Amino acid sequence: MKKSFGVFLFIYVFLSFNAAFGQEEVIRQKACDNPDIKAQADSIKKLFIDKGWAVIKEASVTMESQYELPVIFPLYQGTWYEFVFIGEMTSRLYEVRMYDWEENQVVYQKKMWGDVDGNIISFTYIPTSSQQFMIKPLQVNKKKKGDLCGYFILMKRIK
Length: 159
What we know:
With 159 residues, the protein is α+β, with helices and mostly antiparallel strands. The protein has two helices and eight strands; from the N terminus they run ααββββββββ. The protein has helices spanning 2-21, 35-50, and strands at 53-63, 71-75, 81-86, 93-99, 105-112, 120-125, 131-140, 148-157.
């Protein structure tokens, strides 16, 4: 009986250590620090707040060129939302696709580097049902493959 308990304890401790040290491969999203993008985000937030909007979520994220970065969040029926994505000014292409829970594409926007507000994609959305939505922003940059800065802002109309 004591031998089987000892074997059980050894296996438990071994698996616990293995699980604890096996988490080195977890992918964690990193924030980025780009003062130009932060200044743009602050200006956009101030503009919208002055017009009766409230910031619900915002985040700076590190992105990789040519790869979408999925972001999932709940939206509620009949509420007026504004979504803003700001990419690096040196990227040449910016896209945002938004999908409902059934994976139907409900929004698509594309901007190019030469556009007046090329690195900013902004759109309004009023969901017809309360559910989870997924936004997939993407930016393409020839010079930088990784460590591209992106900034997300999700706002809700309150006035």
